[in-house]
């Protein structure tokens, strides 16, 4: 087992409901779904948070957002819309320290968050 639960999901040590996978990106259903669609989209490579991102990650981020759009399309979210969330650090509400983008949709989402 790795020290990071999402690295363990990438490695297959922890089961997940996968919705998309390629060589660099994995997407799976959140275990505590907050909306009819609640998918976590992650790089397979361990990056702790958005604070570590820079220009070097442009191609990887492009792949992540292409995956998000592909999943949104497959889930029928394109017309009504959806939300992409990245929680960063303690005040941002990040609890798993392997960067992930929440894709939420299938119901009306209120704004602003608490
Ligand atoms: P954060 O609060 O860090 O932005 O989001 C972490 C998310 O990971 C939470 O929504 C939580 O439900 C989800 N999560 C935590 N552990 C697991 C797990 O083992 N499997 C899955 N599928 N989701 C998890
Ligand atoms: Zn990790």
From TrEMBL:
It comes from the Bacteria. It comes from Desmospora profundinema. Residues 5-114 form the HIT domain. This is Histidine triad (HIT) family protein. A motif (Histidine triad motif) lies at residues 98-102. It holds the Pfam family HIT.
